[in-house]
Amino acid sequence: MWDDIERKKILIVDDEEKFLAVTKKNLEKSGPYEVRIESRVSEVIPAVKEFKPDLIILDVMMPDRRGSEIAYEIRNTDKIKQIPILFLTATAMKGQKELFGGLVDGLPFTIKPTVSKPVSTADLIKAIESQLPKPTDE
Amino acid sequence: MAQSMSQQIRVILLEKCRHDSDFIKGFLAVSGSSASPIQLKVARTPLETASLAGLERPDVLLLSIASFDDAVPDGLAAMLAPSPATAVVLLYERGQRWDEADFSLPGVQDVLSKDPLQLEGLQRTLLNASRLGRARSQLREKKEILKALFSASADGIISFSPVQRALEVNPAACRILGASERELLGRTAEEIFFKSTEPEKRGRAADFLMQTFEDGVRRSVDRVCFSASGEHSLWVQCTLQPIHEGARQGAVIAVFKSLSDAIQKEEKLKDAIQEQFRNEQRLVEALSELKKLNQQLKETQDQLIQAEKLQSVGRLAAGVAHEVKNPLAIIMQGAEYLKHSLARENEGIEGVIEDVLDAVRRADGVIQGLLDFSSPADAEMAEGDLAEVIDEALRLVKHVTMAHKVRVVKKIPQDLKPVFFDRNRIQHVFVNLFSNALYAMKEGGELTVCARSEAEDLQSKPCICAEILDTGSGIDPELLDKIFDPFVTTRRGRGGTGLGLSVVKGIMDLHSGHIKIENREDCKGTKVTLRF
Fold this sequence. Notes:
- The structure holds 2 protein chains of 2 kinds.
- By secondary structure, chain A is α/β, with parallel strands linked by helices.
- Chain A has a single domain, classed as 3-Layer(aba) Sandwich (Rossmann fold).
- Chain A has helices spanning about 15-30, 45-50, 65-75, 120-130; strands at about 10-15, 35-40, 55-60, 85-90, 105, 105-110, 115.
- Chain A has a 5-stranded parallel β-sheet, sandwiched between helices. In chain A, strands 5-6 form a two-stranded antiparallel ribbon.
- The longest helix of chain A is centred in the N-terminal third of the chain and has 14 residues, at about 15-30.
- Residues about 95-100 of chain A have low confidence and may be disordered.
- By secondary structure, chain B is of the alpha/beta class.
- The two termini of chain B are about 120 Å apart.
- The model of chain B is unreliable at about 1-5 (pLDDT under 50).
């Protein structure tokens, strides 16, 4: 459907595999995206390195590791540090989103931009598009 | 008289001259056999006379002046010592002259001369002297009794002479007046009664005394100020008794009893009663204060319980949110997927899926409300215009306002002072309150929004006050008490989560503001007052 357009690569990281599966389908059906999903926290960095996504969607609350910590690692890893990250959260409270990442290495890590679950595909795409580099930027 | 005549008259004769004594003895014996019952004993010396007098208690001492060894007065005193009332008749020798001074000697009733001694005269003299002696003795006895009474009386007694000087003062009078006998004797009534020269301070008893002096009429007063000096007033029960009743300008006896003790006791009692009354009042005050404190304590406790409740809800909300929102996310994504995949094949499905998505959004709304409600205090405070926020909120509920045909009345002055607030949250407050008001006016009505600066006064800080009034159904009074409790709603199952007002209250608390919800008094409907 979107074959003639260059599809943006998006990596979604979440511990909810069912959410990943259906979201991947919805995104690929609704927009020019190539979606890869990852539910294992330990595999995130290798996946980023290998897949080289244009955008990473990262769940904040995962059983093994907080999304903020993963984001921190990405931000400190050469070659992938510039990839935009969109955070997903199921516990967003108004006025608190930015600090929800908590402390990473003793420093407050803000998670922004954030999308709150449950999210409609349309809203998700809106958020993705707002974070993807515009063609003119390239 | 007849009795005294029949009584024997005991006479002791002091006569050192035997011749003379025999003569007198014989003389009286003659008369004694007939009319006069005179018993005569003879002594030779004053000493013998004195000892005889002690034994015999004679009625008369017949004393020959010439028989005294020493001075007559000293001898007399010794003879009269056993019975002072004994009458004394002095006998002079031939050629001796009596002297007026003799009559001033104690007991002396008469003076006779031996030259010539007449029988009749002697008899009569002895009779008279003995009668007089007895009378004097009785008088003396009466006087003793009176004197004892006078001294022993618990009532104060002062006798005043006709010239209004104190003649006699008894110990009780001294005690009551706080003065010695010497200080009082001879003093005029004025000096005793009017301790103060100021007329208004003088005792009223003095007036009665003066009147009694004047008219000789007895007066008795139950309670009168006897004398007043400085702060001390002496209150007495007083009788003013003229010595000769009815005699004008006569002597008067004042008899009085101090009431000061009684009055003092009375006053002490009064004081005590008053003190007790004051104590009781203090007790009542303390009790009411205690009640108030108790009430406050109860309110504080209620607030604490409320706060604790809210905190539990908050903790619960945060925990539940994550567990619910994730499945909701899957349902939403899944439903959308189904919508795209199946809608074209089956026309009924799209509606069903839309319902599912709606349900997901509603469930998410509840969870979001809980999260907002439990969100910790990190407001983004800034100065802003309350009128603008109210306008925005009104715009947000405009579609409902129109649907319910509600007229909106706005009374907001142009120069409303800015408010320090979290704009989004306060907007949330107004939207919430407007929604409630509109929900209560489904059949139309009037929504009034007022805002004004509250007059500054000494008790409270100046503040901005906003009021939202509707003409809706009002609130069940039973519900008013717990209106801010979470999950209290009249719209259960019809879109109400019961969190709206809890969140509103939380936001107002966050702003150190105040919210009051009450039923209108002027008409049916509700009035919400917000203070910033």
